[in-house]
Amino acid sequence: MNKTIELIKERKSVRVFTNIPIEKEKKAMILDSCIQAPTAGNMQLYSIIDITSEELKQKLSVLCDNQAFITKASLVLIFLADPTKWYANYNKVLNTDKAINPSIADYFLAINDALIAAQNSVIAAESLSVGSCYIGDIVENYEEVKNLLSLPDGVFPVSMVIYGYPTVQQKSRKKPTRFEQKDLVYENAYDNTIDPHEMLVRRYMKEFKNISIEEAQKNIDELITTQYNRKQNTNFFKEMNRSLSSMLNSIKSNKKK
Prior knowledge:
Blueprint: H1 3-10, H2 24-35, E1 46-50, H3 54-63, E2 75-81, H4 84-93, H5 104-127, E3 131-135, H6 142-148, E4 156-164, H7 168-172, H8 181-184, H9 196-207, H10 213-232, H11 235-256
Antiparallel strand pairs: 1-2, 2-4, 3-4
């Protein structure tokens, strides 16, 4: 199998790291892989914060839903949607009476740019035997994160990725089973005939091969209930929604200036 494809298929999230630090040369390669990522119009509408302060790591672990394992990571990168640099240039060069501010379209492109750069880093890290884990909770507690990282108006965290050498247990841990291509890839138009419940049953039976369809359906119903309660009825998800609303409101306020 092609080595790159093999890396993608084998890569899984790592949440337990050894105490071995990532070498400077490998860190530089991971960061350069971010910079080489595809980007809208070669604008690179993102910025990256490299967290080297142990104190900051600790504070971020608390703000990100109290996930203590973040503090054990050798490398912590925060990927920011950041179209503001280009708009600073627009306002400097273009002769306009009114300030030009980023639009919603700019932020959609900036979010894409930031996530593509992050994914480049994850695959690069995997090729160097360095494990990684996305921390989506960085979008919680927006106001506190903004102050902690001195983020200017119009710059927002999209994702945080932590990296480190995985423990033996993490390396041997089985990667969760993914959906089949036919469940997610449709030709020319959306496939409205796909049953979302059957999708889950197929995936479950693929992972647990010696199980009856009746038992799989029962377990899937329990999984759906658990997932709903874990995602919808928890304080962290309510905070995530509040925080993201605050980010969007700040974009609107910034456009009025």
